[in-house]
Amino acid sequence: MNLDLQRERVFDRVELGHGIGERDRGRMCVMAFVACLTGDEHTDTPACASPVIAAFAVALNDGMPEAVRQRLKPFAMRIAGTADGLDARRIVVLAETMREEILPQLERCEARAGSSRRALAPAWAWFRRRAVRRAARRFREQSRVDASPGQRADLARAAGVLIALGANSAGGATEAEWYWLRAIALLDRLCDVAPAGRSQPAFSAERLDWLDEVLEGRAKRAVP
Question: Where does the pLDDT of residue 117 fall: very low under 50, low under 70, confident under 90, or very high at 90 and above?
Fold first, then answer.
């Protein structure tokens, strides 16, 4: 089979799930999918990926609803090869986006919720808003563009968790979608930070063959 067609078929049939997942069942998180495609061990921190991007992507993956999570699949190819030493630039992009777009939106949503007696009624809504406030406060405290490499990954993870909290505590589907679209756009921008002439790493043809067989077997088992 043509390699491009095979890769497209694999991407269509792989399922992104919560947590690292099981590659031998064709269900895994987006970063484990990156590791699988590049021939790495089963991990959500493959050596070929930027630690900042990996931390942000895992937080989004685990915070997204099932259907929304599948939108991360196309990023698997772009994330591979981002371990290029440019995370200091990426953290600037991430911090600016959070400060200029996400945090103001969280504050507006909090203000609307606080002025609505109906929104204050359910106990779960109150706990979710408190979690958002605490996460936003922690992010502001940690948000430093001169952070060390380890702190950068922590900040990226906190950003992903905060966006997911905002979406999952939103007042409706339209508001939740606003957060998910911004999250995907931010992941896109982080992947765009790249050295001039960066070439994409080759994907393992053997791994594609194996994953194709795994997915084909799963499809056959699903047929009554």
Answer: very low
